[in-house]
Write a structure and sequence with these properties.
2 domains, 0% strand
C-alpha cells in the first residue's frame, strides 16, 4: 500500500498523509480522545475479515472491547 503511494510521487503521498491525518483526528473526536495514546486505550470492536485474521493468529479480540478508556 505505502509502496504504491510512493511510486506515484511525492504529491500523492502528501495527499494520503493529509487524508489519514484528517481521518485520525475525526476518529479521536468521535471517541473523545485527546491523544493517540488515549485513543489506544478506548474499547474497540473488531469485526469481519480483521476479526478472522486476528483470531486465526491466536490474538484475544475480546480484550480490545474490554479496554478501559
Amino acid at each position: 500500500m505505502y509502496r504504491d503511494r510512493a511510486n506515484v510521487g511525492v504529491k500523492a503521498v502528501r495527499e494520503w498523509i493529509g487524508s489519514f491525518s484528517d481521518e485520525l483526528r475525526l476518529a479521536m473526536f468521535l471517541v473523545g480522545a485527546s491523544s493517540t495514546s488515549e485513543m489506544g486505550r478506548c474499547p474497540t470492536l473488531v469485526t469481519g475479515q480483521m476479526r478472522l485474521w486476528l483470531s486465526s493468529r491466536g490474538i484475544d479480540i475480546d480484550a480490545f472491547a474490554r479496554r478501559k478508556g
